[in-house]
Specification:
This protein is mainly alpha-helical and 419 residues long. The chain is 58% helix and 3% strand. The longest helix has 35 residues.
Length: 419
């Protein structure tokens, strides 16, 4: 059966944009969508928190699986918020707390012997905080007998200003739920046992109580961070106020987020770079093998803000005046072009997602010489680049200030990737 975009997205939002548009109304709706999406991110993180608490209280294979599923559910709304990065300083300054990637997982817990130890780039790549209640970090003696949010955020996260020292957020939690993915380019995600959270004789790999403490602290911190960000987009929130201060700057912020996520971040750093390096560690959700969904919902988030509509986890739709209607009022042809390009990208993401869910895992696609996998990824990359060119045309027809989108060596200077 032929897959259509409407069927894949569960919606028939292909209606033409209205001919009239008001910048203030566009910005209000954009902020409303942020509030709804971050609100859903908070709700699903709270469900994850409940599942984590249940796993720690009564460890079992079933409890671990429920926590994993809660994590996967939580990624759906959050990935749709990433389009709010780059153009909104409040989001950019905060984002590293919740979605920093990649990470040196040996900082947190035990790893396979092949992982190695400290490196020239990161002295703490194999620190294993869970196994060590005291340690020296950046010349300071750290008391980690109590693993709590203050320790994770205050002492460990990006320790020594090394970006891969990721101690908090979705991916730290992902590692603690799945463990390392040791399958290379083979099928399969991480295979952590529930008994890593067991008690007494049921405890495997030692320090099960501290592992539970770390998982709880990271999850509690994620919830509190999302509570904070959700509040920034409320009617009296700082992010909303900043956006509405200057209408033209606000429109530029929307376009900057769309173009930067589309081009440098997603097409480049998250997709093209992995193909160039043929490295399964370049998966965005590498422990869970959920990368295909991360890519899908990132692209959906870009489309959401352009069309001015977001469908929440409860099926409720937040919609209103859109950037599409603003562009259509200036040049209907450019609006039709960009809308078509966004839809074309989503169709490529549907194909990639369907292939992964049928058993062709994303890390398998990244294997050197796998022409089918490379074609799936690069067709989606090309669609993202193509839609970015149309976003640039939208910038021109709206007459807003010149915008610089985030770039990537993988796209702009491929030779530099291997230097």
């Amino acid at each position: 059966m032929k897959t259509t975009l409407a069927a894949a997205l569960g919606t028939t939002m292909m209606i033409a944009a209205p001919a009239l548009a008001d910048k203030a109304a566009v910005l209000d709706n954009y902020a409303d969508i942020a509030g709804a999406a971050y609100g859903d991110s908070l709700t699903t993180a709270q469900a994850l928190q409940d599942a984590v608490n249940a796993l720690i209280a009564t460890p079992s294979a079933e409890a671990l699986q429920l926590a994993k599923q809660a994590w996967l559910n939580a990624r759906v709304p959050y990935q749709q918020t990433e389009v709010y990065r780059f153009g909104n300083a409040i989001v950019d300054d905060w984002e590293g707390r919740v979605n920093a990637w990649p990470l040196d997982e040996g900082l947190i817990d035990y790893v396979d012997a092949a992982y190695g130890g400290a490196t020239d780039e990161n002295e703490y790549a194999a620190l294993n905080v869970i196994a060590n209640p005291t340690f020296t970090l950046s010349g300071r003696e750290i008391d980690a007998t109590s693993i709590n949010p203050d320790l994770l955020q205050g002492a460990l996260h990006e320790a020594d200003e090394v970006e891969s020292n990721v101690a908090t957020g979705y991916h730290a939690i992902e590692f603690l739920l799945w463990g390392q993915d040791l399958n290379g380019h083979g099928k399969g995600a991480g295979n952590r046992s529930w008994s890593d959270y067991g008690t007494g004789d049921d405890c495997t790999n030692g320090n099960c109580d501290r592992r539970g403490d770390y998982l709880k602290a990271a999850t509690d911190l994620l919830v509190s961070d999302l509570e904070w960000m959700s509040a920034q987009w409320a009617d009296d929130g700082a992010a909303r106020a900043s956006l509405l201060e200057n209408e033209d700057a606000g429109i530029s912020a929307i376009l900057t987020g769309m173009g930067s996520l589309s081009y440098g971040e997603q097409a480049g750093e998250r997709m093209r770079l992995g193909v160039m390096l043929n490295d399964p560690e370049e998966e965005h959700d590498c422990f869970s093998d959920n990368t295909h969904n991360s890519h899908f919902y990132d692209a959906m988030g870009i489309r959401n803000v352009y069309l001015g509509s977001y469908t929440g986890i409860d099926g409720m739709v937040t919609s209103g005046e859109s950037l599409s209607s603003l562009v259509a009022a200036a040049d209907a042809g450019v609006d039709a072009e960009l809308t078509g390009k966004l839809n074309a990208t989503m169709l490529e993401m549907v194909r990639l997602k369907a292939a992964a869910e049928a058993g062709f895992a994303y890390d398998m696609m990244l294997e050197r010489g796998n022409a089918g996998g490379e074609a799936l990824i690069m067709t989606a990359v090309d669609a993202l680049i193509d839609q970015t060119r149309s976003i640039e045309r939208a910038v021109d027809v709206l007459g807003v200030a010149q915008i610089s989108f985030e770039g990537s060596d993988s796209l702009d200077d491929p030779d530099a990737v291997f230097q």
